[in-house]
UniProtKB/TrEMBL annotation:
Transmembrane portions of the chain: none
Originating species: Streptomyces gamaensis
UniProt domain Cupin type-2: residue ranges: 67-131
Name under which the protein is recorded: Cupin domain-containing protein
SUPFAM superfamilies: RmlC-like cupins (SSF51182)
Domain of life: Bacteria
Amino acid sequence: MLRFIEGEAKMTTAPRGRKLPMADDDILPAVLRPTDGEQRLWGKGSLVTVKLTAEQTRGALGMTHFTAEFGERSPSHIHTLEDEIFMIRSGGVRATVGERTELLEGGSVLFLPRGIPHSYEVESDSAELYVLTCPGGFERFFLHGGYPVELGEAAPVGNRWSVDRTKEIAEKLGLGILWQD
C-alpha cells in the first residue's frame, strides 16, 4: 500500500494471506499480492479470495478472485444493489445474461448492470476469474457463505454446500438478490 506523508510515498503490503490493515482516518491505496486476501472454500470445492472490501474502498467496490472447478455455477439471479464485472483470466465460463448465453474464455470481460438476470457455469476443468461489484458490499456474501480455509488447502466443500444455504445467507445479509431458479 502507498501512504503519502509530507510529499513522500511510503509503501507497505498486506501480510501474506491476510486482510489489508485499515487506517482509522483515511483509505490507503493498496498493493495486493496473489496470496493476499481472505480465502474461503466455495461451492463444489472452488477457492474464492476476497481481495478488496467496501470498507477498504470507501464503499466504491468489492473485488473477489475465483479459482473455480468444473461445474461451479450460480443459479440465475438479479442484483438490485450493484453492478457486476466478470474478468475471465483463464478457462471457460458459460454465462447466461437475460436470454443470451455465451462461452467466455481467458481475456473476456462481462459487464452486468444491476437488474439483469444472469447465471454462469464453469465448463473447463478449472477457470480463474475476478469479479468486481460496484458499489462494494456484495463480497460479504463470499466471506459469510464460504468455508474458512488455510492458505494452500484445496479440500472440496462436498456435501456442506447447497443452493438453499446460499440463498439463505444472501437474504440474511440483505444483499438484494432476486433468485430466478
